[in-house]
Design goal:
The protein is an alpha+beta fold. It is 37% helix and 26% strand. The chain starts with 5 loop residues before the first strand and ends with a helix. The mean pLDDT is 88.
Length: 145
């Protein structure tokens, strides 16, 4: 891969609608790799621990990550949605661009993730931390393959 694996643009208070961009070649690799149950548990539990450092009263059912599911209903290593609960239990989220699969067919080097519904710095920064956690864990696993 050439260039940065990811880019973060515009993350600065008081504006919490920032841009996240992930290299298309990484997205393709994550889409091609099945997500083992053990890795999914590791990510969900690790993400929950990270979120609890900021939001202390998180329900036991909270799972910060939703992964891409293929047509045969197998989860892939690509995260499509990151969720952080807020003060009012509204969720701040980071979603992959809904047209990411079309973008993979073009010469577009980066796939966009779209943060939305932020109540403030805590939600925005925690969702970014969760996204980076997923990226680092999965990137390490993909490099081991």
């Amino acid at each position: 891969m050439s260039g940065s694996l990811y880019k973060i643009e515009g993350f600065q208070p008081p504006r919490y609608s920032y841009g996240l961009f992930l290299q298309g070649s990484f997205v393709k690799k994550a889409l091609a790799q099945e997500l083992p149950d053990s890795l999914q548990r590791e990510l969900q539990e690790g993400g929950r621990c990270l979120a609890e450092k900021t939001f202390h009263d998180i329900p036991l059912s909270y799972q910060p990550y939703i992964f891409y599911e293929s047509s045969d209903e197998k989860s892939k290593c690509l995260v499509t949605h990151v969720k952080v609960l807020g003060v009012q239990r509204d969720a701040h989220a980071i979603d992959i661009d809904p047209n990411f699969d079309d973008a993979l067919l073009t010469d577009n080097n980066y796939i966009r993730y779209i943060p939305h519904n932020s109540d403030g710095f805590k939600q925005a920064s925690t969702s970014l931390i969760l996204w980076l956690n997923w990226l680092n864990v999965v990137n390490k696993r993909l490099q081991e393959k």
